[in-house]
């Protein structure tokens, strides 16, 4: 019975996976899964899947298989009331299923044909250490637990009457010996860091920030599937940049001007202080509407070329179009992409282009 249940469960999971994959674009565009995220599971609404169940109707209400029918007669009894008031009968239900982030990453990779990420850096090597957590009856003499062995030998000799307080000699035999046992414990290591930068000046609206939030969720999901641990850094900027927490990152709006170089400079300083490139796999993504103070553009390009790109696995610039931004920064940074595999530029006019943007960012396999 247990094997049959497991087989049915796996079949159901396969159906769910197919439904999610076929509707992936819809889920990404709406962003409805992000709000249902908890620990390592994500709840996904699947109205297309119905759970089989018996439904009992009221007697005498007619319907299919109950007497002669008339042309135009409804197959199910109507809801009581005139349609202008709330009904008192249950309606249809949407089934929510849970998928792990690993499963979501696999679906994303299959749908977008993404290559696996090839990490770099020494911290990608997960080390282990031996931790002695138990006792066993056999083992090498170098791991013999002398205190436990002595106590067992002493109890045995006292119980058998061979122990003499005048001559307190305790001689362990094979059955008395106790040995320490161990298991390999992986050392907890954060091997990758994702640095998100976003323009929060007055020209960035709430809709643009929601697009950034959706993209960041899927970027996180894909990168985390390739590393044992991932740390994230959030930087917001208008004319001045600052490091903030995740909630502040998505809910801050300023009214000042825009100076993108302030974010790039702060990103570089954080890398130097906390994330040595020889040890860390570092990813940086910057989202903006492309509006920038004109005299600041040369400084941005210099920091990006000379200080950031040599340290990063990948730098992604996403231009989220806004009715208030000029959008000119995209053209400047696009000129740097020639010959640089770790620099990706993506234009995101609206939510319908999120899926394509995610593919552009992650298709390099870096």
SSE string, helix = H, strand = E? HHEEEHEHEEHEEHHEHEHEH
> Which structural class matches the secondary elements?
alpha/beta
- Mean pLDDT across residues: 78
CATH class categorisation of the largest domain: Alpha Beta
CATH topology category name of the largest domain: Rossmann fold
Question: Main beta sheet, described?
Answer: 6 strands, mixed
Strand content of the residues, in percent?
A: 15-25%
Dominant shape: flat
Gyration radius, rounded: 31 Å
**Which strand order spans the largest sheet, edge to edge or round the barrel?**
8-7-6-9-10-11
User: Strand tally, please?
Assistant: 11
- C-alpha end-to-end distance: 46 Å
CATH homologous superfamily designation of the largest domain? von Willebrand factor, type A domain
CATH architectural label of the largest domain: 3-Layer(aba) Sandwich
Uncertain parts? none
Helix content: 25-40%
How would you sum up this structure, described in words?
Helix content is 33%, strand content 20%. With 366 residues, it is an alpha/beta fold. It folds into three domains: 1-51 and 94-113, no CATH class; 128-186, no CATH class; 190-362, 3-Layer(aba) Sandwich (Rossmann fold). A six-stranded mixed β-sheet has the order 8-7-6-9-10-11. It has a three-stranded antiparallel β-sheet with strand order 1-2-3. Strands 4-5 form a two-stranded antiparallel sheet. Strand 6 (192-199), helix 5 (206-224) and strand 7 (230-237) form a beta-alpha-beta unit. Helix 3 (101-112) packs across helix 5. The longest helix is centred in the first third of the chain and has 21 residues, at 2-22. It is flat. The two termini are 46 Å apart. 26% of the residues are buried.
């Amino acid at each position: 019975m247990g094997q049959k249940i497991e087989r049915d469960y796996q079949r159901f999971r396969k159906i769910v996976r197919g439904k999610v994959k076929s509707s992936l674009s819809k889920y990404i565009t709406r962003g409805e899964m992000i709000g249902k995220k908890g620990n390592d599971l994500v709840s996904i609404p699947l109205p297309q899947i119905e759970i089989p169940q018996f439904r009992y109707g009221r007697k005498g209400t007619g319907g299919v298989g109950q007497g002669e029918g008339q042309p135009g007669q409804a197959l199910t009894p109507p809801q009581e009331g005139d349609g202008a008031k709330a009904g008192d009968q249950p309606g249809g239900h949407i089934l929510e299923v849970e998928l792990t982030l690993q499963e979501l990453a696999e679906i994303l990779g299959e749908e977008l044909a993404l290559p696996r990420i090839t990490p770099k850096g020494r911290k990608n090597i997960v080390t282990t250490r031996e931790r002695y957590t138990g006792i066993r009856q056999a083992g090498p003499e170098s791991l013999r637990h002398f205190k436990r062995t002595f106590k067992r030998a002493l109890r045995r000799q006292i119980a058998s009457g061979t122990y003499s307080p005048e001559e307190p000699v305790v001689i362990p035999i094979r059955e008395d010996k106790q040995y320490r046992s161990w298991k390999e414990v992986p050392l907890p290591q954060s091997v990758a860091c994702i640095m998100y930068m976003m323009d929060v000046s007055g020209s960035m609206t709430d809709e643009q920030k929601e697009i950034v939030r959706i993209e960041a969720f899927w970027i996180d999901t894909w990168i985390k599937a390739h590393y044992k641990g991932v740390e994230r850094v959030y930087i917001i900027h208008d004319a001045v940049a600052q490091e903030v927490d995740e909630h502040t990152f998505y809910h801050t709006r300023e009214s000042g001007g825009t100076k993108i170089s302030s974010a790039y400079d702060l990103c570089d300083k954080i890398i130097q202080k906390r994330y040595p490139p020889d040890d860390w796999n570092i990813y940086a993504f910057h989202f903006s509407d492309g509006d920038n103070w004109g005299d600041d553009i040369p400084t941005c390009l210099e920091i990006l070329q000379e200080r950031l790109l040599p340290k990063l696995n990948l730098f992604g610039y996403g231009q989220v179009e806004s009715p208030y931004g000029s959008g000119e920064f995209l053209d400047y940074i696009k000129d740097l992409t020639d010959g640089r595999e770790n620099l990706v530029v993506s234009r995101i006019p609206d939510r319908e282009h999120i899926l394509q943007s995610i593919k552009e960012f992650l298709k390099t396999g870096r």
